[in-house]
Amino acid sequence: MGIDVQKRNIGLNFNENGSADIRVWAPLAKQVSVSIIASGITLEMFNEDYGYWCLQTDKIKPFEEYNFKIEQLTGGEVIERADPASLFQADGPHGPSNAFDLRNFLWTDQQWEGIELKDFIIYELHTGTFTPQGDFDAVEKKLDHLVALGITAIEIMPVAQFPGSRNWGYDGVFPFAVQNSYGGPAALQHLVNTCHAKGLAVILDVVYNHIGPEGNCFADFGRYFTDKYHTPWGQAINFDDAGSDAVRDFYIENALMWFRDFHIDALRLDAVHAIKDLSPVHILAEIKTYTEKLSMFTGKTYTLIVELDLNDDRFIRAQKTHGYGMDAQWIDEFHHALRVCAGQEQEGYYADFNRVEDLAKSYRDAYVYDGQYSPHREKKFGIPVEDTQGHKFVVFSQNHDQVGNRMLGERGATLVSFEMLKVMAAAVFCSPFLPLIFMGEEWAESNPFQFFINHSDQKLIEAVREGRKKEFSAFHHKGEVPNPQDESTFKRSKLDWQKLDQPLHQGMLAYYMTLIALRKQNEVLSNLDRKNVNAKAYPVKNCLLLKRWKGNQNIIVLFNFSKQQQNLSIDVELQGWTVLLDSSSIIWHGLKEDTNLISVNGEISLFPESILILFKKDV
Amino acid sequence: MGIDVQKRNIGLNFNENGSADIRVWAPLAKQVSVSIIASGITLEMFNEDYGYWCLQTDKIKPFEEYNFKIEQLTGGEVIERADPASLFQADGPHGPSNAFDLRNFLWTDQQWEGIELKDFIIYELHTGTFTPQGDFDAVEKKLDHLVALGITAIEIMPVAQFPGSRNWGYDGVFPFAVQNSYGGPAALQHLVNTCHAKGLAVILDVVYNHIGPEGNCFADFGRYFTDKYHTPWGQAINFDDAGSDAVRDFYIENALMWFRDFHIDALRLDAVHAIKDLSPVHILAEIKTYTEKLSMFTGKTYTLIVELDLNDDRFIRAQKTHGYGMDAQWIDEFHHALRVCAGQEQEGYYADFNRVEDLAKSYRDAYVYDGQYSPHREKKFGIPVEDTQGHKFVVFSQNHDQVGNRMLGERGATLVSFEMLKVMAAAVFCSPFLPLIFMGEEWAESNPFQFFINHSDQKLIEAVREGRKKEFSAFHHKGEVPNPQDESTFKRSKLDWQKLDQPLHQGMLAYYMTLIALRKQNEVLSNLDRKNVNAKAYPVKNCLLLKRWKGNQNIIVLFNFSKQQQNLSIDVELQGWTVLLDSSSIIWHGLKEDTNLISVNGEISLFPESILILFKKDV
Predict the structure, then answer these.
(1) Which of A55, A108, A345, A596 has the most crowded CB, counting CB atoms within 10 A?
(2) Closest Cα partner for A151 from A449, A438, A445?
(3) A135-139, A202-206, B99-103, B347-351: which range is least confident on average?
(4) b or e along B527-550 (b: 16 or more beta carbons within 10 Å of the residue's beta carbon)?
(5) Do A280 and B311 make contact, defined as CB atoms within 8 angstroms?
(6) Using CA atoms, how far apart are residues A130 and A136, in angstroms rounded to an integer?
(7) Could you tell me whether strands A328-330 and A234-237 are parallel, antiparallel, or unpaired per DSSP bridges?
(8) How far apart are CA A66 and CA A204, in angstroms?
(9) How far apart are CA A313 and CA B280, in angstroms?
(10) Which residue in chain B is spatially nearest to A369 when comparing CA positions?
(11) Per DSSP, what are the bridge partners of residue A579?
């Protein structure tokens, strides 16, 4: 049917004159009809090319509910199903679709010019646990906190309709429908509009690698899945097998919708290594092409960021060099190396990471593994990155996965010392990469972020619980795996904003604000050219020296991950350097009374678990 | 362990001093030993890094038999297995390995300079059915016939050891061992040496996408297979999962061995679309890299040709543009379009091909599908080719698959008229691509080439037979599917060289010789730059006009695929053209008494089922 970047061409969409265009892909059907719930009317649709069914009608009004009735070619009963491209499932995945009118919202962000990718300071939040209320309205009320912190982009964990009201979002089953319990699509539009008014970009996490297990009726419509590949989460989405054109278009339409109709600035595409596509044009490259077409139409910039566990720069290379053209990727390896420096035991996937040496490698080369043998993966892994732009990479010391995929979902604040938290934060903000923090990190939130679900299928609930238990067999943990289905698991995972009344938490917040402000103001720290970066490891002392420069300006960051005071000899003349930030200073609740450089016999003395940021301008 | 292009570094290899280096990958083993059959000695091997076991010993002499004894980490009985990298299985896949000495053969081809890829005229042969004897010695005796025909490269269907003595070769289970019933490795070395003496290059068909079902003990050694992907022939080879380094090295060593130790000029890699590898460096690209390294070492040129069903030029693009660097690929689509022009019913995969229009497309663009919707594949298929070098593509009107994968294995000679055979041959030899013919085609052999096996596993025999029956459900055929296991199926598939005594067959042979000679001698026909090609279809008349040029020389080839005489108006001034070849001339047993151009009212008149090759030099 082809994609028109100017408007959604699938599902139910209202025209200027108030009539609705309805279109659905159902190549297995003998007949498809639209059933309008309120009026009880059923309208037969017309068969188009390539298995699409369509109808233009004025019999359905905005916000009325509808379903599709499908009579399959193979016979059997007529089945009634919600619209795979539904915009709103007011009663959840098991209810009918709502004829939401995307054009209803009055946008006031016409002046919004966006944030350049290199200036992204990302705050990842989960709508349900970010606030006590757990919806988009409540997120809006906290935006001022984020603005004050210095955040430039919020990243919202997936909002596609999932079963129940408690879920990380990766079990979404209606990729176009915004979660009812969060406030649905209207509230998301409102949130984005408000973000833009406050100068915040919005990144939306979207899941194109699988469809959630409960309420998933896609197979009744067409070949959305393929058995050619296996994924950890069940059937692989069909991006390259027979019937894949419609599936590809479905996801391209989805990406375009968020940008065009919700004014989302960037998508974070979940686990794209699990998107298996051996077509000559990878689905990500095709999404990029259409995103650029939309950009030509709207004049706005749209950004595509991928979560990627492959150390393969074909994802982030430009299409002219036969890459997929993604703007940036996450690098978990930076996190893993950093956590091991900070005392994380080298078990499970952490076994691959060798403390400061690997952190230094990541500062220099982004990928830690770029061809070496990985013991955990049991094979050589990765290739070197061609691109030297640091804004191609997103780094973090915590994120929803790294916190929540621990058995008990412990945040950094309950795993390492207060001082070490500051060291880890500095490691992220002083990097030549895009920093991301996970909600609550900025005040050393100690509540856990655990894995929670709210399914209604009892077998599935048990399977998820068993899967969770199995997952932690490689790690040595004390205690029981929390029950994901229990509401208490969800409640326990909410942020506790009242901690901000306490001086210690206020101190951490001030520290984060200072780090962010420093990164923004300092030309060296905001220069993300990786050619202007070097790093040296001191493995015995568990220390690291990070050097960055731009023109005649220089930054040195000294990290002491050990619990001892360490004296480091560095190959830099010590005279003339200014201390920009000292994490062990009493102003951040540390033990050091002033922020002067302590030099002992020509070596720099570093407090236990501390960092120092030094600055010098050459003359 | 790393690959040394100068020598084989896996399996059993003799050193200069007569001792043997033995190395095997068995990461699941607690202990691996070598059992020397004749002397009854068992020698414990040493555990190296990455699960390799090795031993240097003078206890085994060239051509003695041996096995590995494996005690697994998981316990259980000690199992005895042949060497996965065995060079010779004198008693077939179920017997022990033979300590073949690769260096034993006295090569006399030091002066061999190879054939440039663009000059390849390829003759595909199956060793078992090419001659009555069915072995390499017998192939050698027929080389003079091929030289006289004008062939420059023979392509030998796979010779890796398979079960029994009758098999196309795609059920090979010892990728390094040369089929015992063909004469084993010594006879292959001898054949290649003789080919080079006669000026023939040798292409060897190798299978890197699966391992045959009978006698396959690879899983006892290590993770040679992965469940991440599905293939039509069982488990996918593990090129990117845990443990894949050793598997990749195994196949790289294999490619290098054929070039280095058997003096093979080119490999034809079977069905590489079924090699699933999502590593940053595809296994084909890595094979290319090592092949180039070997080339630096020996000073010889080695060519990699792939069978590919993907219309994705990343396989044939250079590595500097992030391609896999393969030198050429097969294009079945040219064949399919040509066969449909020649009257093949549009059923099964032929349904995608629209006679002369698609043949003209293939002449112009190589790929027929370069982004269009393919009804048979039920999706958009392919991308345009960037490269304009015609020698990137191998074309044919018949090959082992296109003949043998018909239910009855009918060759062209029993499906179309004698005149149409000549038209199809001209379509291939006048193309700007590399021509390939299938053994016997040159004299219009009418014996079938059917699918045959000689397994010993009864269940497998039945499964193959059932699979064969199922495969033909999409085609309308009369008669029974021949039983692949029956020896008569094999015998019936042998060439009948006695037909060459008959004038009709002699005539076809002369026609092929003339076509090949013309292609070699004429500068336009041997110019494979696709920028100098155009083609126009006459759909109603089922005719086609092919134009080629180089400098001031021009060739026109006119094809009439219809059974009627056709008059064509062409956009070329008719004066000054010479007829180079007329397929309907009586000299090729046609009906036309002379070879002059017949012009009727300014239109060219074409005999039914005929071609005309015209030449003109501009002044």
Answers:
(1) A55
(2) A438
(3) B347-351
(4) bbebebbebbbbeebbbbbbbbbe
(5) yes
(6) 10
(7) unpaired
(8) 27
(9) 8
(10) B280
(11) A614
Question: Which tokens go with A253?
Answer: 């339409």
Interface confidence, given as ipTM, is 0.93
**Least CB–CB distance from A243: residue in B242, B321, B379:** B379
Tell me the CB-side half-sphere exposure of residue A453, using CA atoms within 13 A: 23
In three-state secondary structure terms, B160 is strand
Question: Across chain A, what does the average pLDDT equal?
Answer: 95
Provide the 10 A C-beta neighbour count for residue A233. Answer: 17
Q: Which among B244, B314, B380 has CB closest to A322? A: B314
CB A568 within 8 A of CB A604: yes
Closest CA to A307 of A269, A334, A265, A336: A269
* Whole-number Cα distances in Å, B540 to B355, B535, B544: 10, 16, 11
Condensed to tens digits (0 to 9), the pLDDT of residues A269-326 reads 999 999 999 999 999 999 999 999 999 999 999 999 999 999 999 999 999 999 999 9
From residue B218, alpha-carbon distances to B35, B235, B245 in Å are: 18, 11, 15
Strands in A157-200 per DSSP E: 160-161, 174-178
A94, A156, A394, A151 alpha-carbon torsion, rounded to 10°: 180
* Chain A contact for B243 (CB, 8 A cutoff): yes
Contact at 8 Å (CB) between B378 and B405?
Answer: no
Which chain B residue has the Cα nearest residue A324?
Answer: B322
Q: Are A56 and A41 in contact (CB under 8 A)?
A: no
Instruction: Check residue B477 and give its pLDDT.
Output: 62
β A434-438/A393-395 pair status: parallel
Measured between beta carbons, which residues in chain B are less than 8 angstroms from residue A281? 383
Task: Give the gap in angstroms from C-alpha B378 to the nearest C-alpha of chain A.
Answer: 5
Q: Cβ of B281 under 8 Å from any chain A Cβ?
A: yes
| CA–CA distance, B4 with B13 (Å, rounded to integer) | 13
CB atoms within 10 A of CB A163: 24
Task: Let me know if A64 is a catalytic residue.
Answer: no
Q: How far apart are CA A548 and CA A533, in angstroms?
A: 5
The CB-side HSE value for A94 (13 A sphere, CA atoms) comes to 7
Report the chain B residue with the minimal C-alpha distance to residue A245: B379
Strand-strand pairing, A11-14 and B79-81: unpaired
Instruction: Tell me the pLDDT band of A474, cut-offs 50, 70 and 90.
Output: low
Question: What's the pTM?
Answer: 0.95
Q: Which of A228, A310, A373 comes nearest B230 by C-beta? A: A228
* Residue position matching structure tokens 């006119």: B558
User: Please, which residues 40-79 of chain A have a Cβ atom closer than 8 Å to chain B?
Assistant: 50
| Confidence band for A595, pLDDT divided at 50, 70 and 90 | confident
Chain B, 346-375: which have a CB under 8 Å from a chain A CB? 373
Assign A21 to helix, strand or coil: strand
pLDDT exceeds cutoff 90 at A575 = no
Q: How far apart are CA A131 and CA A127, in angstroms?
A: 7
What is the C-alpha to C-alpha distance for residues B409 and B449, in angstroms, rounded to an integer? 5
CA dist B238 → A379, B162, B242, B324 (Å): 11, 21, 8, 18
Q: Which residue bears the tokens 């795609």?
A: B170
